[in-house]
Amino acid sequence: MSIVRFEILTKVIELGSFTKTAKKLNMTQSAVSHAISSLETEWGVPLLIRDRRKGITLTEIGQKTLPHIREVLKRMEAINQEIALATNLETGIIRIGTFSSASSCLLPKLLAKFQKKHPKVEFKFYEGTYEEITEWLQSGIIDIGFVVKGKSNPDFDLVPLLKDKMVVAFHPEHKFLHKETVDMQDIEKEHFIMPTGMYQSHVEELFEEAQIKPSIRFEVHDCTTIANMVQEGLGVTIGPELFLKTQRNIKIRKLNLTYYREVALACSVISEASPAVKEFLMVAKNVFIEPNSTIDSQMSFN
């Protein structure tokens, strides 16, 4: 059946190996190879390029057909979930794209709430940058993704979760400890650790609004490394409260300029999502959104 071959093909692309795919799907390597070959023979076109140095890559026609294959698999998953719901047997897989602070601070609470009610639904997680999550949503690799409003495709359906305030972080013995609010002008005089990762643009916009230039001592990509450097007294930094408040041996304070990044869950089209995905988004809405918050009509689960 082509559906099985579709699943094998997408797994080969995901893992980049026939051997790993065979192990993952509990098949022989020859069976995996035969499934791909038979699909190529049936369609009369090569789908994969097998190169010992570069590994496995898609041909041009393979790149064009893969999104459609993923869409077919998503539709089949939705059909299976509808049948499962009709027979009172909940099942399915939800593929979620997430960034580091969402993984550590938002996902555990959501999963705990969801799995109490739906213990048979499985999850698969992909952690990446704002841009990668957007790309995964567009290509159908994931069903839903944590995004920051203004940093993702405006065509996605969004379920807003929370506003994450940008704060200043510093060593516990720093003079900022005795302040309730830190003025941006005071940060200009400090050795600054500039994030070069996902929230760099947020930090740069804050400095631009304050019309100052930080004294950048280090430029660091990894969030945890930045927190560790602050812990060692190597400088101060600005970042999202959601992440920084979870880090040990550093202190945070609000800034005199208020700046938020708005975290949301994104889905290509909620009305076309699987039952499990719709239910997960509903749980997220109930967990994070205040009762008097409003959601656009496109967010409807009806």
Automatic annotation (TrEMBL):
Residue span(s) of domain HTH lysR-type? 1-59
- UniProt cross-references to CDD domains, sorted A to Z: PBP2_LTTR_substrate
Note the Gene3D superfamilies from the entry. 3.40.190.290, Winged helix-like DNA-binding domain superfamily/Winged helix DNA-binding domain
Tell me which family the UniProt entry assigns to this protein.
Answer: Belongs to the LysR transcriptional regulatory family.
Keywords, comma-separated and alphabetical: DNA-binding, Transcription, Transcription regulation
InterPro entries cross-referenced by the UniProt entry:
HTH-type_LysR_regulators, LysR_HTH_N, LysR_subst-bd, WH-like_DNA-bd_sf, WH_DNA-bd_sf
Q: Which Pfam families match?
A: HTH_1, LysR_substrate
Q: What is the scientific name of the source organism?
A: Gracilibacillus caseinilyticus
Transmembrane segments in this chain: where? none
User: Which SUPFAM superfamilies does UniProt cross-reference here?
Assistant: Periplasmic binding protein-like II, Winged helix' DNA-binding domain
Q: What is the protein name stated in its UniProt record?
A: LysR family transcriptional regulator
PANTHER family the record matches? HTH-TYPE TRANSCRIPTIONAL REGULATOR CZCR, HTH-TYPE TRANSCRIPTIONAL REGULATOR YBHD
